[in-house]
Design brief:
Number of helices: 9
Bound molecules: N,N,N-trimethyl-histidine
Enzyme class: transferase
Largest sheet: 8 strands, mixed
Number of strands: 13
Oligomer: single chain
GO molecular function: L-histidine N(alpha)-methyltransferase activity; protein methyltransferase activity
Pathway: Amino-acid biosynthesis; ergothioneine biosynthesis
InterPro entries: EgtD, EgtD_Actinobacteria, EgtD_Methyltrsf_superfamily, MeTrfase_dom, MeTrfase_EgtD-like, SAM-dependent_MTases_sf
Pfam families: Methyltransf_33
């Protein structure tokens, strides 16, 4: 049987609900309509994302895994961490690669942070069972809002993997890096996974897989809004769209209405009209160049210690010191 893991909850139902209401009200009143990607991740959405990471087209997960497998010991030696804090930990599948090396080098605590309490609890239990000497404390929180609440104990390594940093628009990213830097102490480090700019075809294929898993993941946000806010979205009436914006160097996921629709959202007292062909943005996933990301990190007060690129140059992991 798995040990019980302490769950620190900064996202009580009330706050979560309020944040969703605000995001949906603002996003659906906007032109163009848009929703933040964080609402993809209920239990079903986290599961769909885990399936995405196993798709042949979705190279980022495999590339990052290869980097971590190759360089975990280097990372552990550079970070000399007592505590690993992982932002957006999800199923923590890749984390074992880091934990094996970090625990061998003296790590004492692991704090996964995620918005999806179900997936978080399950992952934390699995890792607590695998590393008996490690204190595992799961933190249910929104990494954009609750950085200041993260426990401060020992030398910390903050891991933000998978390329999730790309979900933040440049202005939000700047705020995030500054806020994160402000809660770190000298000696603490950041391990950041970032997907790199590459040819458009491969980028788009990674977000428009042949099996349609990404399409289901994209539509899941409509199921979440239906369940939580009593809305009557017909998810099947929206097409999945993935497009590369070459000027901004980011992938955009959208949901395109197949026909004219009126969607009722009783909890918000809203009726939202969609015109046939209208597109609603559900995610940006920015792609980076090491030089540009180095500049952003430096501007927030981080010092880059090392870049790790996979042999094909598709994905990068950077270790930066506070
Ligand atoms: C989990 C944010 C890293 O942006 O590539 C995968 C999410 N969206 N396929 C990404 C995602 C569509 C993913 N991140």
């Amino acid at each position: 049987t798995e040990p019980t893991v302490q769950l620190i909850d900064h996202l009580d139902r009330g706050h979560l609900r309020q944040a969703l209401e605000r995001d949906v009200r603002e996003g659906l009143a906007g032109t163009p309509k848009h929703l933040p990607p964080k609402w993809f991740y209920d239990a079903a959405g986290s599961e769909l994302f885990a399936r995405i990471t196993r798709l042949p087209e979705y190279y980022p997960a495999r590339r990052e895994t290869a980097i971590l497998r190759e360089h975990a010991a280097d990372i552990a030696a550079l970070a000399r961490a007592d505590t690993l804090v992982e932002l957006g930990s999800g199923t923590s599948e890749k984390t074992v690669l880091l934990l094996d090396a970090l625990v061998a080098a003296g790590l004492r605590a692991y704090l996964p942070v995620d918005v999806d309490a179900v997936t978080l609890r399950r992952a934390a239990g699995r890792l607590a069972a695998r590393y008996p000497g490690l204190a595992v404390r799961a933190v249910c929180a929104d990494f954009e809002r609750h950085l200041a609440l993260l426990p401060r104990e020992g030398r910390r390594l903050v891991a933000f993997l998978g390329g999730t940093i790309g979900n933040l628009a440049p202005d939000a990213r700047e705020v995030f890096f500054k806020d994160l830097r402000a809660v770190l102490d000298p000696g603490d480090t950041l391990l950041l996974g970032a997907d790199l700019v590459k040819d458009t075809e491969r980028l788009v294929a990674a977000y428009a897989d042949a099996a349609g898993v990404t399409a289901a993941f994209n539509r899941n946000v409509l199921h979440v809004i239906n369940r939580e806010l009593g809305a009557d979205f017909d998810p099947g009436a929206f097409d999945h769209v993935a497009a590369y914006d070459a000027a901004n160097e980011w992938i955009e996921m959208r949901l395109r209405a197949r026909r004219d629709m009126r969607v009722r959202i009783p909890a918000l007292g809203m009726v939202v009209a969609f015109a046939a062909g209208e597109e609603m943005r559900t995610e940006i996933s920015a792609k980076f160049r090491p030089a540009g990301l180095s500049r952003e990190l430096a501007a927030a007060g981080f010092t880059v210690r090392r870049w790790f690129l996979d042999p094909s140059g598709d994905f990068s992991v950077v270790l930066a010191a506070a």
